[in-house]
Amino acid sequence: MIKRCIIATALLPFLANAAPFETCPSQAFLMQDNNAKMYGIDLASGRTNIIASTLRLNGSEDTASVNAIGFNFKDQYLYGFRKESKQVVRIEQTVEGETTHYDSTALTVSGLPSGVHFFVGDVKVSGEAPAEGEPDTRTSSYYIYNKGNGLYEIPISDNLSAPLTATRVSGSQNWGMTVYDFAFHPITNKLYAMESDGDLFEVSLDGSSPELVTRLDIGSDTGAFGAAYFGVQDVYDEETGTTSENIVFYVSNNGSGNIFKVDLTNVPDDKSGYNPTTEIFTLGPKSGQNDGARCAIAKVEVTDESMDFGDAPLPYRSALDNNGARHVFDPNQDNQNLIYLGQTVDGENINTSTDMNIDYSDSSDDGVTLATDFAAGLTAQVIVNASQASSLYAWFDWNQDGTFSDDEKAIDKVNLSAGDNSILIDVPSDAVNGTSWARFRVTDGEEETLTAYGAVQGGEVEDYEFETYGSESYPGQNDWITLAFEDRWPYLDDSDFNDLVLHYRTTKYFSSEGVTSYRIEGEIIGVGASYHNGFAVRLYEKDANTGTVKTVATNQINTDNASLFINGQAVNRAIIEPGRTDAIAIIAQDIWDHVNVQNGCEYFRTDVNCDVNEKVTFSVTLPLVNAITAENAPGNLLDPFIFASDDHYHGDVITDGNYRGLEIHVKNQAPTEAFNSALLSVEADDNSDPSSSIYFQTANGIPFALAVGSPWRHPHERVDINSAYSKFADFAINNGASSPLWFNTVDTNITIQLGAEQ
Fold first, then answer.
1. What is the tens place of the pLDDT at every residue in 677-711?
2. The pairing of beta strand 307-309 with beta strand 290-293
3. Which of 244, 277, 506, 758 has the fewest CB within 10 Å, making it most exposed?
């Protein structure tokens, strides 16, 4: 346990006459500008206030700059170095009526080099704090440093009117350390300082030179670190369930204002391999001239409810002790123009994770609606309600490791308008299935960027639990099957297999309970049909080896939330065909309604020199009412097929007006319940035999529909597939037992050259 003075939370504004500062204030002090201004900064929040817009010297306003400040927690005074007169000064509070001034008193110090300005300094206090009522036998010294001149110790006497003597630390004039501030560790009394590139040095004051501890990871935030502090922070250990007091080193970058924290509770003697975690703790003020001091034994903690914290439970970082995300939601303390999500914002006092509510709930986390499921490989939607124009960041813990890592930033400084904003989230294909957390942070956008942790002035943080669904795609997440149909069935006709050609992929999504939804997507790359055909997919799978059938019933589809997009535009009609037992998704009632033929061409991307039209994309999402176990859920190819469009002539085979009853499926796939089985008795090229489970093939095995296991160049109009692919007949007649890679032997002069690539 650190023995320290009683810690209060703010500077006392009204004292009588000249007096020291409040006992061990928790605020840090910053001295900035050529005409010294003194600020107080709350390290927990980054909130800054002006303590003194100017200092006084001998009762009159002083226009000098003061640097190298250090706080003496034995006598509660600040000490610094006045640049213009090259003097050591003590800074105290002076009350005149209801006005508090901050006065510098020049001390008489001998032993310092003449004309040298010292801008690096701190105070070391040695000895144990006295028990109540006992005399204080501690000693204190003010240390100042100038590269090339060295480090000087000035013992501080209780009688400051007495002359003081500065002594140079042996050999310090030869130190190569270039630093802009340093601070004394309150336990070991060693000095710590950081150079502009992140090199952290330890000075033992035993006659040895500064020792490089390690190079801290400060990213690109290099430059002068003009303010350094130590502080005490309560830290909760999840493994042991105990809270300890850690000693933390804070350094502030002049240019960015970022204040980094480094835990230096236990620095080993052997520094090899020692690499303490370094991260941005909060954002302080920027300045070209910056110097800091702080009572090193005061706690860094939150004492009010001025900050909104994240709410995700451990191991997520939400409390102060693990530098959780937090916002001073009313930085000007005027309740005006606040930036937040939803209808309200409020604050919490969460110093350690044990301070969080057991259910981690926050009634003001009301600004984000997770509008769709989060399924691996899909795009999800969130609706974000903002109080005013602002900037939004969000992280999703896709891999469920309990951290919001940089590569999990799904929204990066997106501009929001006041009110509702619709935002799409791309869910990674490798997102882990199960429950996880997301963190949303809204700000005024003044920052260059933002991480999932640390303090921000203004805005709000909201954490949400969500569920990610796993996925299984056929043939693969980024791969295609090519489907090619001949629409003259039961007649084979020209066998060019380009009446409808499309790339095709299916994906099923699952939770811990089983398959929860399906997605079918593709792109139409060729239409060489004079007939009008529709395209549909039955959620059906038959195991060729066992004969086992898996299917999804129509009443298992959540039709209210099903969606169909063609060329990126939502199609507003029923997707699941009504009146069917098996779920059949009608993707297009008539393919010709969705394609545009190139000028001078008869068909869509099947004629010679007619292959530059953009593909027609489609995507259908079919959520289920209840999850289906993986063993019972169909998958892989499912059952894609074409059918005759209503009210369009489709050959003399249809005599009763039942256009929908004509279906064409891949080889040996049984038709749907909507199929007109009377068509099987027509004398034609088809040789289907339901009793033998033979469908949609000729007597010698030529199919009427192909499923090619990769992107594929389809033949030109009226070019027989056997001319374009010389090994196709061998493959078809032998049911795939020979020439399985028939599609790799192609005559490129009679196929659409860009069918696969464009």
1. 999 999 999 999 999 999 999 999 999 999 998 88
2. unpaired
3. 277
CA atoms within 13 Å, Cβ hemisphere of 140 = 22
User: Under 8 Å CB-to-CB from 697, ≥6 apart: which residues?
Assistant: 667, 668, 686, 687, 688, 703, 704
Distance CA 206, CA 169 (A): 9
- Using CA atoms, how far residue 375 sits from 432, 538, 587, 733, in Å, is 9, 22, 21, 41
Q: Can you name the residues that pair with 78 across neighbouring β-strands? A: 71, 91
Tokens of 384: 């974000």
pLDDT in tens, 713-752: 999 999 999 999 999 999 988 888 899 899 999 999 999 8
3-state secondary structure 666-684: CCCCCCCCCCCHHHHHCCC
Q: Residue 121 is inside which H or E element, if any?
A: strand 120-126
Contact 622, 557 (CB under 8 A): yes
What pTM does this model have? 0.67
Q: Cα dihedral sign for 59, 62, 64, 66?
A: positive
> Which residue pairs from 567-576 have beta carbons closer than 8 angstroms and sit at least 24 positions apart in sequence?
567/594, 567/616, 567/617, 567/618, 568/617, 575/620, 575/622, 576/622
In the block, tokens 């061998």 appear at: 730
Alpha-carbon gap, residue 647 to 660, rounded angstroms: 10
Query: What burial class does residue 403 get, using C-beta atoms within 10 Å of its C-beta: 0-12 exposed, 13-18 middle, 19+ buried?
Result: middle
Question: Which is it for strands 455-457 and 326-328: parallel, antiparallel or unpaired?
Answer: parallel
Chain-centre distance of CA 100, in angstroms? 46
Q: How many CB atoms lie within 10 A of CB 377?
A: 20
Q: 591: buried, middle or exposed (CB in 10 Å: 19+, 13-18, 0-12)?
A: buried
In whole angstroms, give the CA distance from residue 185 to residue 265. Answer: 9
Q: Give the contacts of 271 (CB within 8 A, at least 6 positions apart).
A: 202, 211, 212, 213, 214
**Strand arrangement, sheet containing 455-457:** 307-309, 326-328, 455-457
Give bridge partners of residue 362 from the DSSP assignment: none
Q: By the 8 A CB rule, do 72 and 85 touch?
A: no
Give the pLDDT band (50/70/90) at residue 34. Answer: confident
The answer to whether residues 77 and 21 touch, using CB atoms and an 8 Å cutoff, is yes
Output the pLDDT for position 17: 56
Cis peptide before 315 (omega within 30 of 0): yes
Return the percent helix, strand and coil in the chain, to nearest 5: 5, 40, 55
- Answer yes or no: are the C-beta atoms of 138 and 123 closer than 8 Å: no
**pLDDT > 70: percent of the chain:** 96
User: What is the three-class DSSP state of 351?
Assistant: coil
